[in-house]
Amino acid sequence: xxxxxxxxxxxxxxxxxxxxxxxxxxxxxxxxxxxxxxxxxxxxxxxxxxxxxxxxxxxxxxxxxxxxxxxxxxxxxxxxxxxxxxxxxxxxxxxxxxxxxxxxxxxxxxxxxxxxxxxxxxxxxxxxxxxxxxxxxxxxxxxxxxxxxxxxxxxxxxxxxxxxxxxxxxxxxxxxxxxxxxxxxxxxxxxxxxxxxxxxxxxxxxxxxxxxxxxxxxxxxxxxxxxxxxxxxxxxxxxxxxxxxxxxxxxxxxxxxxxxxxxxxxxxxxxxxxxxxxxxxxxxxxxxxxxxxxxxxxxxxxxxxxxxxxxxxxxxxxxxxxxxxxxxxxxxxxxxxxxxxxxxxxxxxxxxxxxxxxxxxxxxxxxxxxxxxxxxxxxxxxxxxxxxxxxxxxxxxxxxxxxxxxxxxxxxxxxxxxxxxxxxxxxxxxxxxxxxxxxxxxxxxxxxxxxxxxxxxxxxxxxxxxxxxxxxxxxxxxxxxxxxxxxxxxxxxxx
Length: 495
Fold this sequence. Notes:
Blueprint: H1 6-9, E1 16-21, H2 25-29, H3 31-41, E2 47-52, H4 60-64, E3 69-77, E4 80-88, E5 91-96, H5 101-106, E6 115-118, H6 141-155, E7 165-168, H7 175-189, H8 194-203, E8 205-206, E9 209-212, H9 223-230, E10 238-241, E11 245-249, H10 254-260, E12 270-273, H11 277-300, H12 306-311, H13 313-327, H14 335-349, H15 358-361, H16 365-372, H17 374-384, H18 389-401, E13 407-410, E14 413-420, E15 423-427, H19 431-440, H20 445-453, H21 470-484, H22 486-494
Parallel strand pairs: 1-2, 1-6, 2-5, 3-10, 6-7, 7-8, 11-12
Antiparallel strand pairs: 3-4, 9-11, 13-14, 14-15
Helix pairs in contact: 6-7, 11-13, 11-14, 11-16, 11-18, 18-21, 20-21, 21-22
C-alpha cells in the first residue's frame, strides 16, 4: 500500500494562517480538525504549520506523509455507536523550532499568519528569568513566542493590522492571561521597547480558552487493520471521542473574532464569549466532578472501567442524581445549558471505544474532591440548608477507598496498597495524604471521620467537621460500608 500523501488526500494549497506550537494527538484531533472542517464548509482557506517547540521527538513521520493524517472520531451519538473518519488536510507543514530555527522565524514575516495556537502542557506557560533573547531560539515557549512576535513587529514596522491572535489550549486557569503576562514580562526584561509593548497591547490579542475532548490518540492495536480499511499506510492515525467543545474568550471585538474564525458558520461546537469561567465551572463540576464523586464508590462496588460503571444501573443512577440534584442547582449557567452538558457527559462515559480505568481517575483523589466537588457540596448546603446525600456519601467512599495501612512502591514512587474482594490495588497521592490515611484509616468510624473532615490541608483551609451533622453522617456511611460492603450500601442508598 502507498503511504498517505497530498496526492491521496487531494489537499488544496492554502496560505498559512495558523502557527501551532505542539504536534501532539490532542491538537491534531481538536484544533486541526476544527480548521479542517472550517476550510471545507466556509471560505476561511487557512493552513496550519505545526511547530515542534522542544528537542524531544522528530517530525519525520509528518514530512513522510506531507503532514496528512487520518482522524477517526468514535463515540455514542443519540444513543447509538458512531464512527466518523476523515483525512485532515489543514496542516500544510511542520517545522522544528530548534533544529530549523531560521525557517521557524521566517513565519514571523509571513503576511498571511494571523493566529497562534498552543498546547505545550501545563508547564509550558512559564516565565524563566534565565531565558535569553539572544538564544536561537529561547528555551521556553513564551520566550520563543515573544521573539517571534518581536521579529514580526520589526518586519512590518509595527503595523496594527499585522498583530497576532494567541489562542492557548494549555490546561491552566486563565491560560490567555498567563501567556500574556509571560510575554509582557519578557518584553520588559529583554528591553524590547515601549513601542513593541504597545503593539502587543493594541494589535495582538491573548484569548483564554476552555478545551474539552478526550483523545486516546494512536490506536496501536488496531493500526494495521485500520490501514487495510483505509487503503493506505498512515503512521499518524489519531483517534478521539465525537464530543468536542472549545470556549474562546476575548476582551476585544467578539464579532470581529467570530468573523475571522468562522467556526460557528461551519457548525462546530465553539463558543465565543467575554467570560469563559462559567463554562469552566460547568465542565469541572459536572464532568470532572462526576468522575471524582462516583469513581471510589463504583470501584469498591466491583467495577474497573467508566463504561462498566455506566452499564451498572445503580452507579449510573448515583451519578445522574448527583449531577441533577446536587451539582446543577449550584452552577451559574442556566439549568438548561447544564442539563444538556450533563446528558452529553453521560453519553461520553458510555463510549465503548474508550477504556478509561477507574484506578487512573483516583490519582490524587483528595485534592480533586476539593477542586471539583467541594464547591458543589458547600453551595448545596448554603442553598438548601441540608447535607447533599450523594456528595456526603462520596466523602465516605473516599475514606473507604484509602483505608489501608499497607504501603509499597508503584512506578518508582511510594504508594498505599488497598484491598478489594481479596485483590490488591494501588493508591497514589501526595505523601502527606497517604501518611494521613495510613495513620488514621483503621480508627473507629466517628474518630476517623472527625480526623479526615477536620484536616484543613485536604479542603483548602476549611474544617468540614464543623458542618452540622456531617461527621455523624459520614461516620454512619463508613460503618455501614465496613459492615456490609460497598455494593450493599450503595444499592440501599440509591434505592
